[in-house]
Hints:
By secondary structure, the protein is an alpha+beta fold. Helices cover 50% and strands 17% of the residues. The protein has a 5-stranded mixed β-sheet with strand order 2-9-8-4-5. Strands 1-3-7-6 form a 4-stranded antiparallel β-sheet, with no helix packed on it.
Amino acid sequence: MRQRQLLVIATALILGILAYLGSATLLPAPVASAHAYVIGSDPVDGSVVNAVPSVVRIFFNAPISPISEAHVYSIQNGNLVDVGAAASSVAPPNSRELDIPLKTPSALPQGSYEIIWTAVASDDGHTTHGIIGFDVGFSSTGLSGTRVVGPGTSNDLYGVGGSRTLDFIGALSVAWDWLILLALAFWIGILVAERLILARTENAWTLLDRARRQASSLQWLCLVVLLVGEIVTLLLRSINLARVSGGNLDPGALAQLIIATSYGHLWLVRIALLIAALALLRWTGRTQDIPQRATHSGPLRQTAGQEARSTSTPPATKERPAEDAKPAQALSMRYTPAWLLLAGLIVLTYALSSDAAQVLQPHISAIVFDWLYRIAQGIWFGGLAYLGYILLPQLLVVDQAHRAETLVVLLRRFTPFLLAGMGVLLVSDLFLGEASISSSQQLLNDPYAKTLVVQSVIIIALTAASAYMLFAQGPRLIRQALLLPVVNPDLPARRARQSALEQGRRSLKQGLNIQSWLAAGFLLCAALMTFLAPPINFPAVPSSNAQSQNASAPAAGAQTKQAGDLSVTLQVLPGRVGVANTVIVTINDRSGNPVTDAQVQLTTNMQIMDMGTARKTIAGGNPIYIATFGKQESFSMAGVWVIGVQIQRPGQSPVQTTFQVTLNQ
Length: 665
């Protein structure tokens, strides 16, 4: 038994270390990143070019689907004029490039141009969007201050539908992702516990039979949550796409998301596998119905008082429940390979659409590595929940004479699997954290990195609690259980040891419950990190495009005012009523350097009448502060609108100013 435990632990750790080394050494400096972000464009965002290009190209950090689109506008007299010759399309040789052909470049005017883009990541189905600006020859609007050249301002992270806007839709996405992670981990924990850990433990046949009946309903719950969660997640993806695109959710867009993305293809496979798992669960339940009715009669229905009165029952009668349970358990174990195969394939579909698969693809080690990470979550977290919420409470149905022996068996058989899950998950978590964060400064400024810090604190606490349970609390209980038969049953010392053993069991259950809640917190952080996506690492801007870094090239309607010692520039695009308008704010300090650590609050209302005050708050982190007001939120009537800008910097008093912007029909 000891050799088998050591073999399980060593195998799991070796797999984790090999996956880590393979991903870390064979690929140079991988950086994980969910969603599809703009990391470059031609022309470069903020640059000045000599002539209008025939094709505008946008480059992303991940493959995008054909649903993605972009439009190029020329800013003429404060209006946006679409100059695209045809619809945008994904470049055939490069799924990370979106091309927009322009109408007769030689006939297009000089001045300022804007590219408004919306992208759907092929691998995870998330929608991102933003604005790219460039000038041809000169700026037609005149923006003062230091220009920022490069893709750092191309992505809308905190506007309406922004990839890091935790609004109502964003909160729903995080909540459902969390439920999916909880259900998946618990379901894997149930399968591993029942079919790998306890399946060959004859001393626990009765306990396993009782626990399996309770776990069967929980398996139904987990699989239904996974199935419903996948449907809701797809709908939320579609709603976000429709919201960003300015349209309404319709079945056609939903079908496009399924058909035109790798995420949709994997979603279909995952739904089919979940339905197959539900069908198998129903089939195994029906085939075992008669054996269960025969097994669950008699001594298993004893109350605690009846157990106490049955201490004089002959040994053969006491062991009858375990003997009767064997046929039902043997029938159940026949389907173990099918269950493990289904679980492995379902987890594989999640791994194929993970961050690591996007960035490191088509490197197979990244997918295997993420697959092991999710399986380890199920073994560790799901195993803790199964042991604390199912097995230990059911231990009370075992007669008192065999309770200590059964507890020893449970602890000994669970220990190597929990240790293996801990080892693989810790190694995996180390790799994913290293791949996601490129600098220590991000740990203080980036919301994803801050969540990763919280998750690391939780996993340290969970590791300490699990290690205490496995190496201190567990051995102490085992020692008490082994010494219990040595004492004569009629002596007070026997009752004292039984009381101590029962107290230890309750303490163990409380510790397992606490660890289960810590695991739930870890998974909540994982769901939030999936939504936020790791920090974007932009490549350096080529020197050929850096010539315009100090040029003056603002977008439409740009105005500059002073707020305290800060220079604030504001622009509204497209500056028309009846559509969504984006307010872009840039802030420079007295030295002309961009301010990136401010929190900006925008308020809008009409000058001549009260149309209702709309508010938006933009967090820092980028040189450009962007907020989008939907057509129902603000700017609903032509005329003069007053936009208030309040700026709060860490450790400084807030400053504010107002702008007046005229919007046309």
